[in-house]
Amino acid sequence: MAGVYISYPFCGQKCTFCNFASGVMPAQLETEYGVELQREIQLHSWAWTPETVYLGGGTPSRMDAGTLRATLAAVPGAPWVEATLEVAPGDVSEERATAWQRCGINRVSLGVQSFIDSELKRTGRRHNAAIVEREIGILRHAGIDRINIDLIAGLPFQTCASWIESLEWIDRLRPEHVSVYMLEVDRDSLLGLEILDGGARYGAQSVPSDELTADLYELAVERLAQAGIQRYEISNFARPGFESRHNLKYWLLEPYAGFGADAHSFDGILRRENAETPAEYVRLMRTTTCACTAQTPADTAGERFFVGLRLSAGMRPRDEEWLRFDAPIRRFVDEGLLEIDGGLLRLTARGVLLSNEVFQEFLG
Fold first, then answer.
1. Which sequence spans correspond to the domains of the chain?
2. Rounded to an integer, what distance in angstroms lies between the CA atom of residue 76 and that of residue 31?
3. Which CATH superfamily groups domain 3-251?
């Protein structure tokens, strides 16, 4: 199954935990970006017809209806099997939801992160649980009946009790899909930078320990399973039949074309990436009609392990891959991080928590 990823890196505010190449930018640049984004898609030579579309960001729900309609109209294959729009809670209205559905959107991913007001305020988010509940109702009434809710384990001031309260909201709202991410601490986010520099802004001194964050994640695995929402990938959980068809493409090494700033593409042989910033993206599109800044051959053998082991089902190494990676496989099995089951290789429960350590052995 081939797909399309469309990057829209503009936001109304920069959340403290966000480490993506997105943020608040001039309105003129946002307008220019929309024009060049449509042109990049229109100029693309399609080797296949996409079956899924994913608009990520940033906050693509900021797009006005006309821009969204024109952007999606340039993508062949409508109606797509799955067309996802990332949405910031607070952006949903009856008018917008209806417009999204008419453009072909049939799935929405809500960046909720937490249902606790005190935790949300520290991140820069402006919604609350009541807004999320109301807007899910609006989406469903508009005919968008596949909903994902994002949660983050490890936010400042988060406790086991507050995390359980957020998970109880999942029981109440009954989304088809939930994504649970453990807070990433790096210099690409305001909060991460503050933590690493020993500062106190953004609640940096009140971030849960790594041990507590891992406990929160495992609690989510347990509670979501009890609600019929099973983990199928390290960070992704779904009711049967509601797994993200688009994101599965990444983990199964299926082809996809990426458009917009910092978008990546994969055709099965080569990986390509576009200019990182919207300003550079617009400049390149205007001067060369090509925003690609790097192209590298894919290491499909190593990548098969890196992405395939993310799946709860595991992956089935080929004969030559068992030989190539015999040493790390045996070591991780002995350490209880990997398990072998009838030719399948998968992470153990402990291995999921130490997955980055495992993945590094199969890359490069």
1. 3-251, 316-360
2. 23
3. Aldolase class I (3.20.20.70)
196/181 Cα distance (integer angstroms): 19
Band the pLDDT of 301: cuts 50, 70, 90. confident
pTM of the model: 0.95
Q: What is the pLDDT of residues 25-69, one digit of tens each?
A: 999 999 999 999 999 999 999 999 999 999 999 999 999 999 999
Identify which of 67, 69, 68, 57 has the alpha carbon closest to the alpha carbon of residue 25: 57
| Residue 63: C-alpha distances to residues 10, 31, 147, 246 (Å) | 9, 10, 19, 21
Query: Tokens 């966000």 correspond to what residue?
Result: 18
Contact 301/321 with Cβ under 8 angstroms?
Answer: yes
Query: Which residue carries 């992704």 as its tokens?
Result: 236
Name the E strands within 70-209: 82-87, 107-113, 147-153, 177-182
Number of neighbours of residue 323 by Cβ within 10 angstroms = 9
Distance separating alpha carbons of residues 81 and 53, to the nearest angstrom = 9
Q: In what helix (H) or strand (E) does residue 122 lie, and over which residues does it extend?
A: helix 117-123
Q: Quick: pLDDT tens for 247-289.
A: 999 999 999 999 999 999 999 999 999 999 999 999 999 999 9
